[in-house]
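Ligand-bound model needed. zinc ion.
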Amino acid sequence: MAAAAPDHLVRAIGLGGRARAVAALTTATAEELRRIHDPSPQVAAALARLATGALLLAASLEKATAREPMLTLEVEGGGPAGRLVATASPAGWVRATVANPLAASATRNDGRLDVAAVVGASGHLVVTRDPGVAEPYRGVVALETGDLAKDLAAYLAGSEQSPAAVLLGVLLVPAGRVEVAGGFLVQLLPGVSDDEAAALSDRVRAFGPLSADLRAGRGPREWLAMTFPDGCSVLEEVPVRFHCGCSTERVETALKLLGIGEIRAAMDEDNDRQASVTCGFCRRVYRVPRLRLLELIREIESERTRP
Ligand SMILES: [Zn+2]
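Prediction:
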């Protein structure tokens, strides 16, 4: 196996601008998510797939100056893992969380990790695009498989009216560490001919499991070459990494949104001295002292009485 390349994402246009592709290597990022959440192997795979999918979809957001553009995927599949959330930026960072990290299911007959069994396939996928310049907009699709790749493709086909293929791959070593992870998205754009579309989808269908490809040392550049044998234009290559972005300020804002009752309950739990708040995305623990909690309560009260 070739030396592991650092995580990165490549955005490209092929067929003279009539198809776009995003390819990402996310091994180290997926391993960081696994280290943070300490999940079962199936949930580690689900987090890796969801985070990679979020990066692939976020890559199409335009850069904005007012706010950082972001894309959030939320999955409520009704499976034992509970709700999964991943947020990514076109700048290449991603974070993800899951309600029940230790959810597990029997291994499939072929030994592959059964992501759909922990995610479930009876709920829905919510995609929130925050373009950073206008109000965020949400799209919802019913989950079809719970394996996440086909669900993301169904979302793109439905919401953007353009057929897309999404491939996600992750492989864990027996000890549990993420060995490889990555994803590939191909989307047809207006103007593509039926023949071009058929040839492109044949080439994407001929892909084996991405995880096997990654293990063999292939990655984003090779997938692009396989998909566009006549060449493609690389628009951008960005490094990919885990990043949370939480802060004391954001934790305090979240506490205020919970309301006075919840803040008082948090104070009681911690002997009235402080409240401990754990960030669901990075597991960092914030301790908010009692004096600050009382200030937050006063702020809520004064905002309420403001005319
Ligand atoms: Zn955090």
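The first strand starts at residue 8 and ends at 14.
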